[in-house]
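User: For this week's homework, look closely at the record that follows, marking any run of repeated tokens, and judge whether sequence predicts the tokens.
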Amino acid sequence: MDLRDKVVIITGASAGIGRATALAFNRSGAKIVLVARRAEILREIASTMHDPLVLHADLSKEEDCRMVIMQTISRFGRIDILINNAASIIVSPSEKVNRDDLIQAFTTNLLGPVTATQAVIPHMISQGGGHIINVGSPGFMMGIPYYSPYVCSKAAFSAWTRTIQAEWEGSCIRVSEYFPGYIKTNSKPESRLGDVEQDFLMNSKQNLMTRLFAKPKDPDDVAQQLVALAIKPKTLAYSDFSTRIGAFISNISPFRLAIASQMARTARNKKNLQMFNQ
């Protein structure tokens, strides 16, 4: 697909993967719709781009999801690609995660993309086709310690993605799932453990496999891969070989548990946490 003049909605566009992806698609000649809660940052990003549509929206709210689709149609008359990237990340010990944390994660990470996708589908059908790209996380397969609201909601998101892939196979709508792995970003998660950094789950004494899976990747590399995925759609794409291997190893319980539990020990040591049964 030639991306010139294609209309691309990117949620969570104010930082990390979303920001890098918006800039990458802009360079490809696409018409960009920037969506995020932080309007001021969106305007700063927009100032470096070619006439994007900036939409201040909280995708945990159903009315905001629908507004994004309607405003885009009003401006451009069509939507070619919807990239569901926005996510809520909450760090907390699993035994202390409260219902509000889970509701927040599921509302943003699952219900938001579902609503936006359902709202865009009639327009894509009427124009003869479209492409949904869901940015998932292989972390739910590994069981990333202290990120249970995020990984649980992303597991549900992946299940939904694969369900609509089956239902819509052979239609004019393409659905891609993209697994980026652990990404370096300036945005810190909401943390119930105090301030946490990007290396929260890793240290130099971990085994090679654990260090490899916990090492943050560059969002610019991910952005280029998402552009490539839009040009040539696939059912499932990984950011790199290590992420693909991590997904495979996650199906081998002893290896999965060894890697994830080492991450948990690293986090406990850094934050001086005690296991609840000690």
Notes: Residues 73 and 233 are 23 Å apart (CA to CA).
